[in-house]
Amino acid sequence: MKRLNLAAETYALIVLCIADLLVSGWLIHTGRASEGNPIMDFYLEEGLGTMVLAKVTLVASGLFVAEWTRRYRPVFVRRAMRLALAAYLILLGAALLFNCVAKPCPPNPEATTADAAAVTSFFASRYRLAIHAASGRGYLQTTVW
Questions:
Q1: 124 domain-assigned
Q2: Domain span including residue 95
Q3: Which of 105-118 are b and which e, b meaning 16 or more Cβ less than 10 Å from the residue's Cβ?
């Protein structure tokens, strides 16, 4: 089997996007945040599964183009990917700060632990997101099967 020869920046963006998707899905489902990206908000109105599919499609398309272009312009792509990582981290950090610290949303009283765990049921079967409630606040614990 041939191994994929992806750039380290590509792997970093994949991990960051998955983390963003997990945290966003959980925060939105529990009522602690709202989707700040107008494109993803449009798809979220159609359902969480539609938003996940749109995010995966958009991110995978961009990463495919970047990896294809990297063969011809490796320095440019490396710099562009690093800029994309920095911008993503800054925007994600600002969104989390605004939604979770500056204006904390009250937790959704109807959201139970089972409901919150169902948010991630569409992810790969090798990962399970367990959400536990402790004194009114939730925390994430990711385990690998």
A1: no
A2: 8-108
A3: eeeeeebeeeebbe
